[in-house]
Amino acid sequence: MLYMETTVTPAPSLTKPVSLPLLFQQQRARAEALRREGWEARAMRLRKLSRWINDNRSAIQQALYADFRKPAAETDVSEIWSSQVEIKHTLRHLKQWMEPRVVGTPLSLMGTRSWVQHEPKGVCLIIAPWNYPFYLAIDPLASALAAGNACIIKPSEITPTVAALLARMCREIFDPTVVTVVEGDKDVATELLKLPFNHIFFTGSPQVGKIVMRAAAEHLASVTLELGGKSPVIVDDTADLRDAAEKIVWGKGINAGQTCVAPDYLLVQESVKEKLVEEIKEVVQRFYDPEGEGVAASKSYARIVNAHHFRRIAGLLEDAQAQGANILLGGTVDAGQRFIEPTLLEGAPSESRIMQEEIFGPLLPIVTFRTLLEAAAIVNSRLQPLALYVFTQNNEHQRYLLQNIPAGGSCVNETILHLAHPDLPFGGFGNSGLGKAHGFAGFVGFSNEKSVLKQRVGRTGIKTMYPPYTPKVKKM
Ligand code: NAD
């Protein structure tokens, strides 16, 4: 049966989904048809997605505001624009990505031709987190559709307004046998993970990433794991401190620090610490308190997503203070508003929770170092970070730090922006993730790279290897 994208059957109420195995079976049947589709059908879905986002900008802004008071300007940049960049980049390059990639022929296989062709994996599962709940569902969806898959999206239950909006979006523009949203919490995710998906794209914490990988192993499904961790920012004594302060405060302040690649802790060379702290204080005031009414009055600053995360972050701060940390800036928390001020602190012991766990909130502990060797050792004593930020004007220092600190990705004299470049594969390493997303890397992640060797009929380069084995073959 041919499925027509234009005759979209309304999806059933997905809060109480129909049988998940049935939904999966329907997608699996459809995936067979998707496999035979060409570029135009995939591009059409991507265009629909892009159009819907364009037409529903204010609904997206409202949903994000309802879930955690995310400022509309931040939603524009980090949810809408970032999604459109990915979709448009994919649309621009998809035809070329789908072309078989011809590879050269070694002498031993002379006469043959070989290429790699990308085929869809089949039915994919996308499990999304709450911190960029729209973008982190759309970004992998664009790659999944570009690669020709059917997929089920399980958004986070912690941002229910965005989850409902994603469900509505998919009902409006996709046939549910191609893309469906299944809303729900970890129990729903657990049920989904029992199904034999061909690929699972998970964004979330390393702890849950391990659960996902175990479940995937049951069916030998491939996985992309976009996880988190403690991303350090290192500022040496050659850095432009004003510039560094602006970029660090921006990278930490966006989404109130609830960003997987937010600078988690700050390593600063001892001799420039005081100056950097002064610069950071000035920037925080300029960004979030220009009228002097307090950051809580700022319309440019988000809230902590829920009471659980508020208690967790406030607990990290209390715990650090109890262990001797001093607050240099901020420190105000308000449970009623789930507000936590941008907070700079020093003196948190290395074994304190704030220096061991991913903070995922607007607290920035400072640690000083004397030599780059010492800075690298501090970072490398922890698990591999998702991002490494280096502020320096010395190319040798840059080279040393990039070479000696393993990390998923990195920026020099910038924070966060490496994830906005669609030609840079994005992802973690070790504890911060497995596999890469964005652009071609995302397309490849959702594709099977099928290797093909074509021989001429009646010819083979290895006829001499056929049995029965003779002394001549043995000699080879
Ligand atoms: P989380 O791991 O708690 O949840 C992510 C998703 O997994 C949600 O949809 C949730 O419903 C589901 N889930 C939760 N428990 C589960 C279980 N036991 N079994 C199956 N599914 C389960 O993560 P979060 O709190 O939503 O997001 C924060 C984490 O995500 C941070 O560690 C952050 O660094 C990371 N993150 C990483 C990236 C990246 O691109 N690398 C992006 C955003 C967030």
UniProtKB/TrEMBL annotation:
Q: Which UniProt keywords apply?
A: NAD, Oxidoreductase
The cross-references to Pfam families, in alphabetical order and at most eight, read: Aldedh (PF00171)
* All copies of domain Aldehyde dehydrogenase, residue ranges: 30-452
Report the active site residues.
Answer: E226, C260
Q: Which GO terms describe its cellular component?
A: cytoplasm
The record ties this protein, via InterPro entries, to: Ald_DH/histidinol_DH, Ald_DH_C, Ald_DH_CS_GLU, Ald_DH_N, Aldehyde_DH_dom, Aldehyde_DH_NAD(P)
One MF term in the entry's GO annotations: aldehyde dehydrogenase (NAD+) activity
Gene Ontology biological process terms, A to Z: aldehyde metabolic process
Under SUPFAM superfamilies, the record lists:
ALDH-like
Q: Which CDD domains match?
A: ALDH_AlkH-like
| Gene3D superfamilies in the record | Aldehyde Dehydrogenase, Chain A, domain 1, Aldehyde Dehydrogenase, Chain A, domain 2
To which protein family does this belong? Answer: Belongs to the aldehyde dehydrogenase family.
Q: What is this protein called?
A: Aldehyde dehydrogenase
